[in-house]
Amino acid sequence: MESESPIETKKGKSKTPRKPKDSVLKQKSPAEFFAENKNIAGFDNPGKSLYTTVRELVENALDSAETISELPVVEITIEEIVRSKFNSMIGLVDRERIDEELYDDFETAKAREKRLAKEARNLEIQAKNASLGKKVKDPAAPKAIRGRGEASFYRVTCKDNGRGMPHDDIPNMFGRVLSGTKYGLKQTRGKFGLGAKMALIWSKMSTGLPIEISSSMTGQNYSSFCRLDIDIHRNIPHIYLHEKRDNKERWHGAEIQVVIEGNWTTYRSKILHYMRQMAVITPYAQFLFKFVSDTSDKNVTVRFARRTDIMPPVPPETKYHPSAVDLLLIKRLIAETSKQNLLQFLQHEFVNIGKPYAERLIGEMGPDFSPKMPVKSLNSQQIVRIHQLFRQAKFDDPSGDCLSPAGEYNLRLGIIKELHPDMVATYSGSAQVFEGHPFIVEAGVSVGGKDVKQGLNIFRFANRIPLLFEQGADVVARTALKRIKKELISITRNLIEAHSFSWNSYKINQTQDKIGVFVSIVSTKIPFKGTGKEYIGDDISEIASAVKRHKSNVCVGRYIPDATGAIYDVLKEMALSHASKKRRYQDEDADLLKKVSARLITKNTLAEKLAQHVEQVDYEMAMEYATQSGVKEEPREPIYIQSLEAGKQFIDLHSPVFVFRLFQ
Ligand SMILES: Nc1ncnc2c1ncn2[C@@H]1O[C@H](COP(=O)(O)OP(=O)(O)OP(=O)(O)O)[C@@H](O)[C@H]1O
What we know:
Elements: H1 6-9, H2 30-36, H3 46-67, E1 73-81, H4 83-90, H5 109-131, E2 152-160, H6 170-175, H7 195-206, E3 211-216, E4 222-231, E5 236-246, E6 253-262, H8 264-281, E7 286-292, E8 300-304, H9 327-336, H10 342-349, H11 355-365, H12 380-392, H13 408-419, E9 423-428, E10 432-434, E11 437-447, E12 455-462, E13 465-467, H14 475-483, H15 485-498, E14 514-523, E15 528-529, E16 535-536, H16 541-553, H17 563-581, H18 589-604, H19 607-613, H20 619-629
Parallel strand pairs: 1-7, 12-14
Antiparallel strand pairs: 1-2, 2-6, 3-4, 3-6, 4-5, 7-8, 9-11, 10-11, 11-14, 12-13, 15-16
The chain binds adenosine-5'-triphosphate (ATP).
Adenosine-5'-triphosphate binds next to helix 3, helix 7 and strand 6.
């Protein structure tokens, strides 16, 4: 047998083999890890990084406003910075090229001659075709000969009216990977404690510039300003400036600014889609999106107006369901609990374990266990036993009370306001469970609309954020495309027929008609597949069947009922949102309903009409409540009610809350 020694194989080199280096144990900081694997967090390339930066900042801004029940106002600006400006920002002298051949985009004289000849030939052909009356394609723009050196830089600024941040916490919130305030079990948009830091890491990698944060909390007479960077190796913030400034205007919120490399040209449409979809699922927010560049014809300003004051309640933190915990988590809960004994621990640290059930479980665990035993004294085997029992025993499903779906009202309103469809139907399911985590699926179908492409348009949302990438593999897209295409067509056809439009004979054509399919899933744990948090696998049967079922449930009758039902629903939603803002009212929805409806009525002298059509509210009562509640502010826009008059085709209640078309 021939020797496989590396010495022999190296073309007869007979040097002594290099001694392999002693392996040195190294440790990577989380910041280093994410800097090296930035695609995991959606920073795959400059274009996607620009998109993800916008997304992370917008989502943080919404979270922040919602936590204080403030209707979000979010302004996002992307300012293009040409290289010379960027260089002057960083104090680098802009140099002319001297040695052209050194550059990636260098074109030899021969190559240039060839290219020009080809372009001339193409022009000739075009001219000939034009003279023969043939269709002429737009002359292809000469390929930009752009070298790698021509990076584009952008200053991304996001301003919100949220809760702001405590002065001393700012450096760690932005300069320490995997630190955040959104840990814990609840439905949240963010959860890794990564987004804003990744934007900073990317800025550090691409421009070397720090992040700037201004923030002020409600009632604070100062605002905080912080300019910081991240020490990648140690995963700690590197602070350049951290100071308190005057806050005469008493503003509250945050303004985050970061300068990164990006690519607006290739990600323009994705970013605008994202903003639009966010406006669909968040119709209670006001967004101002701006792209600003030196070339003014590239500038973009899009305003997404708020169309409702109804905000889904802030999702509360909840406890774990016994089927949702693993060994590690049980150990952590034991370490963190303030409860003394096992009985109290089981009863208070989990949902759906009442005292009698906890006692039965402890009895079942075996003779080593007793209700009074100190929970911190449990040894590893005992913890495994608890875990095994959690796996095998029956528990009631967790309730969906801790979830805050967009709500049918918001989903429908969002679809109407952004897409202007001819028809829309929505459905909201009840909570279901996947591995001990509750989830709710809401769905909508629309037909027609403005700026909607022909065929199927799928809008996916998870915990009220739009998912734009990896659609092909997603449970929603797959269900819509494969399994219920037919169903969908029949739903939309029914929709049309049910409204006895003059276009009764209209045939749905799935390639020509503009069909919108909207599916929103909220949960305490979204089972994302893949690393990018962009799609939910269709192998999770609970979710797949819920999506399927809910789409079939988007039925004609449900939200195209008579006017009474629709107005009633609006008032109820208003009452609920009111209740969520003022907690003490939570159990008095019925009363609130009356009050809120009264407000609607007195402000608009529509009491009589509404009282006729809204169950439970008569005019007298409405007036009385209105007087008592002493609501002062005027609605922003007038309210129009047309459909209540016989023969009118739709209700268009603008402010304070409502835009909705009813087809009767
Ligand atoms: N605009 C903001 N207003 C108030 N607090 C903010 C704002 N932006 C970020 N924060 C705070 O900084 C923390 C870290 O934000 P970061 O985006 O890094 O992580 P995250 O939002 O918690 O999770 P994810 O990785 O999913 O984005 C947040 O948890 C939040 O407390």
